Amino acid sequence: MKGIDVYVEEASKNQGVSILRVSGYVDTTTSPDLERRLQAHQRNPRNP
User: Fold this and answer.
1) Cβ proximity of 3 and 26 under 8 Å
2) Higher pLDDT, 35 or 2
């Protein structure tokens, strides 16, 4: 089964707003990966 892919982009009209796009299945197996990506983005929003 495929994991998840997380893509981060900045909103063009709203500075300071990030858009995270998640593809794949989010379940108990893949949710730790998503959580790590979200936490890393919160710590350093300029490093997708």
Assistant:
1) no
2) 35
